[in-house]
Amino acid sequence: MDYRYLGTSGLKITEITYGNWLTHGSQVENDVATSCVKAALDAGISTFDTADAYANGAAEEVLGSALKTQRRESLEVFTKVYWPVGPKGPNDTGLSRKHIMEGINGSLRRLQMDYVDLYQAHRYDHETPLEETIQAFADVVRSGKALYIGVSEWSAQQLRDGQALARQAGFSIISNQPQYSALYRVIEAEVVPASKELGISQVVWSPMAQGVLSGKYLPGQPAPEGSRATDEKGGKSTISRFMDDGVLTAVQKLKPIADELGLKMSQLAIAWVLQNENVSTALVGASRPEQVAENVKASGVKIPAEAMSAIDAALGESVEKNPALTVSPETRVA
After folding, report:
1. What's the CATH code of the domain at 40?
2. Which of 38, 49, 134, 284 is the most exposed place for a label (fewest CB within 10 A)?
3. Which pTM value belongs to this model?
4. Which residues are catalytic?
5. In terms of residue numbers, what domain contains 291?
6. How far is Cα 268 from Cα 258, in angstroms, rounded to an integer?
7. Into how many domains does the chain fold?
8. In angstroms, rounded to a whole number, what is the distance separating the alpha carbons of residues 329 and 127?
9. Which residues, in sequence order, are CB contacts of 204 under 8 Å at separation 6+?
10. Residue 169 included in any domain
11. What span, in angstroms and rounded, lies between the C-alpha atoms of 266 and 268?
């Protein structure tokens, strides 16, 4: 397993991060989730990503229990704050000082940890002054409850505004967590250039486009039973943008490219995002331990320039590049 620095900080993380969105506390039983975490550790993954809103706190609890026997200093644990949690009252969401302070305490309690390595703003909060948000994060860092601060799905301008205030407050934003894959490249035009300028790197989610780039969804055929596209708890809605016969047909053109490189299509998808020098790590989840062992084989893969060009040609017009799609809700949704 290869390591990369997160932003311009001195923190090294594994270039494959185990994430538990849509799985722990929701799609898979706790014993299976624990087995997946063990498989990640066995494969050399030391970086784990979760959020307080995943399964309304249950995902953090499952991850914390699964990691409890590990040496804390040997792990890099990320979590997030913004989306509604708890009973979802008026102050149970957003990036107000109240919610951030209560959020970090709740996350640490569920994770059974004294600190997290990275605490992330899960979205940009248009209803709270940015100065209030940044000062609260500064206080979280000074308290020792989080070592570093990151954000998720912030636009280029939001990153610039946030970093300017963060540096005034005595810390730096070191990461952004956007959706990014060979099919979904909306960060390339604006977010990535701004991030390079600001010393921020990407922790990318959905490198396999919700599993579509694994090639298991075939055009004109029903989704495999038990797959994310059949999950009514949330998986089906998140994958819907890619479940188009034109997209699925284009994806199948990637198989000979993967075969030529000796990779499975899922490994090719993960390796593709890691070719971007501004990407520090790719988030992968799993509903079975064997999926973890398969995904980590993308670490360290160098895709030749001609193969990268062939991927572009295969996907063609199926690729989404509109930078305006990097958006956060205008109002908080309780």
Report:
1. 3.20.20.100
2. 38
3. 0.94
4. 54
5. 3-325
6. 6
7. 1
8. 10
9. 177, 178, 179, 180, 181, 273, 279, 281, 282, 283
10. yes
11. 5
